[in-house]
């Protein structure tokens, strides 16, 4: 399981969202901020990538001496720590593992360890270092998803508008599954 040590930054400002929703200043700010975070999370899940670079940590079991990091795109691996079945831990230096970047920004980490051993990896992942690096179509999709969530607050069970998926589709990374 991937754990983000920091919450992801929202690439759309509260003022932008408020303007799109045609709300006055500071009206429902807490609700709009919450909806923005939810819309950003939905976007990240849909496209299969974290938007703004943040820290991640995973504890994974090795199969065939390798693991694939979950968050994408990986920009840096900070530490790799071997967690033997008998207890304890050993931090590995860069010579103790091999990284292979795969299509779509995923990273496969290979170690000379037996199957079933566990490893803790701390790394950073995300498409852009800051808000300004996020493509405008992704940002527009987040604003529209925020509007959809705002409009559906009354319990309406509507599906999101298709334009949101169309805006995010060029950045969507799909896998065939089964990869470890």
Features:
180 residues; alpha+beta; Hypothetical protein yqbg; 2 domains; five-stranded antiparallel β-sheet; three-stranded antiparallel β-sheet
Explain what you see.
The protein has 180 residues and is α+β, with helices and mostly antiparallel strands. The protein contains four helices and eight strands, in the order βααβββββββαα. The protein has helices at 14-21, 29-47, 136-151, 162-168; strands spanning 2-4, 54-61, 66-68, 74-83, 90-92, 97-101, 107-111, 118-125. Strands 1-2-8-4-5 form a five-stranded antiparallel beta sheet, with no helix packed on it. A three-stranded antiparallel beta sheet has the order 3-7-6, with no helix packed on it.
Poorly predicted spans: none
Q: Based on DSSP secondary structure assignment, what is the total number of beta strands?
A: 8
Distance between the termini: 12 Å
Mean pLDDT, nearest integer?
A: 87
What is the N-to-C succession of helices and strands?
A: EHHEEEEEEEHH
Overall morphology: elongated
Put simply, the count of helices is 4
Whole-number total of structural domains: 2
Describe the sheet with the most strands. Answer: 5 strands, antiparallel
Q: Judging by the overall fold, what is the CATH architecture of the largest domain?
A: Orthogonal Bundle
What is the CA-based Rg, rounded? 19 Å
- The level of helicity is 25-40%
Strand content: 25-35%
In the sheet with the most strands, the strands line up as: 1-2-8-4-5
What structural class should be given to the helix and strand makeup? alpha+beta
As for the CATH topology of the largest domain, it is Hypothetical protein yqbg
CATH class of the largest domain: Mainly Alpha
């Amino acid at each position: 399981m991937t754990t983000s040590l920091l919450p992801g930054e929202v690439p759309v400002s509260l003022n932008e969202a408020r303007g799109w929703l045609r709300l006055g200043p500071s009206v429902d700010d807490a609700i709009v901020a919450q909806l923005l975070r939810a819309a950003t999370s939905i976007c990240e899940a849909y496209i299969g990538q974290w938007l703004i670079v943040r820290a991640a940590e995973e504890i994974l079991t090795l199969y065939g001496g390798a693991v694939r990091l979950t968050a994408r795109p990986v920009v840096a691996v900070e530490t790799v720590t071997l967690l033997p079945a008998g207890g304890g831990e050993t931090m590995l230096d860069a010579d103790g593992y091999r990284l292979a970047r795969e299509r779509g920004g995923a990273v496969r980490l290979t170690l000379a360890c037996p199957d079933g051993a566990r490893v803790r990896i701390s790394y950073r992942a995300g498409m852009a270092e800051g808000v300004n690096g996020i493509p405008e179509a992704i940002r527009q999709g987040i604003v529209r998803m925020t509007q959809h969530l705002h409009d559906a607050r009354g319990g309406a069970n509507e599906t999101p508008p298709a334009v949101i998926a169309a805006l995010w589709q060029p950045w969507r990374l799909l896998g065939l599954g089964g990869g470890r």
